[in-house]
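Q: Protein A?
A:
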Amino acid sequence: MMLNWEPRYCIYCVQNQVSACCKKSYPEDLKDMDSTKTTEPSAVTFQPGTTRSRFQTAPETEQGPIQIRKMEPQDIEFTGRIIVEAFHDKVEHAVGKSRMEDMTQLFTKILRRSTHLWHRYHVAMYEGKPAGAMVIKFHDDNAIEDFQCCETLSHVGCWGCCGILCMLFAFTDISIGAAECYVDTVGVDADYRGKGIGKALMERADSEARQRGCTSVFLWVKQSNRAVRLYERQGFVITHPFGTWFTGFATGCRDWYNMEKKL
């Protein structure tokens, strides 16, 4: 799905070629641009001999009251809670309803010390307050969380620890191609739903993917999840259903879709 882009961009948007819809006034030095055309900014490219970070990211994205940026240390507790809430059904299946708060505390601890993974996390701010979070992965990003069994046992018990390990195993068997971006998680705080947070986060995933030269973005979603329709409106299509007995055992749901969007 091609996005419709505003013909007027601020000088920052044009110079950095970001996929943010800029509402600022038309700069004087861009008045010679053809304002009758609607074009999509091209992805940032890197010329031979230039320096490129392994985890190069797109600039912060602003859309009205929404700002998307990289996760920062002060976002850890919020992000930990949102990620667990986004996986609520699967986490509850793994550890039990009575252990959900313990699981939130555990994941927050793991996230706080797993600094080598922070580049995956993006936070949506709405009028200056955290409203949503997203996790994306790329082909060359194979690091895992700093998971410690003894710590997990102390929070969720032996059964919960086994459940978490099974769930993690079910979701680590994901093959990400060299030109692919995988959207691992998207979560929006209940107080901010219906404000376009999820859409803005998904557009940020597109921007990050283009920044790295990817040609597609994909994700996994339960077939019964209402978010399937949201993803379709964002340009994703169902490529194939999948699921095994182990997927059902580990997550509580056997029937899943692989959805993909071409960039």
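Q: Protein B?
A:
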Amino acid sequence: MPRFQEDRTWNLQTTVFKPERSSRPIQYNIVTKWYRKPSNQNIIVHYHSAHPFYVKRALVRNMFRTARKVCTEEEERKESLEMARDIAWSNGYYTFPTSREASSGGVILRHGSTTIEGKTPFVPPFISDEVSASIKKCLKRSGLENLVAIVNVPPFNLKKRLIRNRIYDRLCTTSNCVVCPAGREGDCNMTGVVYRITCRVCGDEYIGETARPLHVRVKEHMYGMRRLKKYTALGSHRIQKHNGDDFEVTVEVVAQEPQVCARKTLEAFWIQVTDPKMNRREECLAITRELRPYIRLAFPHRL
């Protein structure tokens, strides 16, 4: 016995249980599961936040790993994982992959996935909760909720807005610019935008979209107007509404979207809602081309 224990007086009582009939005197059966305090709001880094993607991926993976490891029984493990999925869902982690589910509890945590539980993804831009709810109702009425998964393109986060609004990026270098006076300086250099041209004489409007710098597309419109090109929107408007007289226009950006499909969809929505007089409605065909692969799913009995 060590020296320091010999010099101490221990006041300990020991109880020894003797087994009876070759059985254990006490049988411990400890059951554990993942516990969250009632006061916990279950708020984690949101999926649409400006944090790096690897940070959000590691955070959610660790949450599912903890929920799995602290449980001793299979029933408690399922309950804990279900709680973790609810927390992930409430913070924007909606979709589910077809593989690598074990490490993340089924929540998708990587870019570039093409299928979601065997469903075909439909990727519209996020406009409002009402529009998203209407799309879901249409899929449900068509019986496609088990075949098509809606993946909304998120709007710009704070990081993208701050970078886009830097002072040294917003300089107007276009001579006789008709875009910046109606908006902010530097709007003429924006790319991937949906824009609106308004006639300052009669108030008629034109909605368009372009992936190029906006001032390049506007110059094409102005050229068609000056040359009285009938196949252009402004040229036709000048001939039909103003008898060939010149008129001034204002140009403003109504939306910005880098993805072609989402941008053309936004353009068609703006045309449908605002009903511009200069448009020929040919732009709405973009939605038809994008939704053409889903026609067989929507009307299988007609094809």
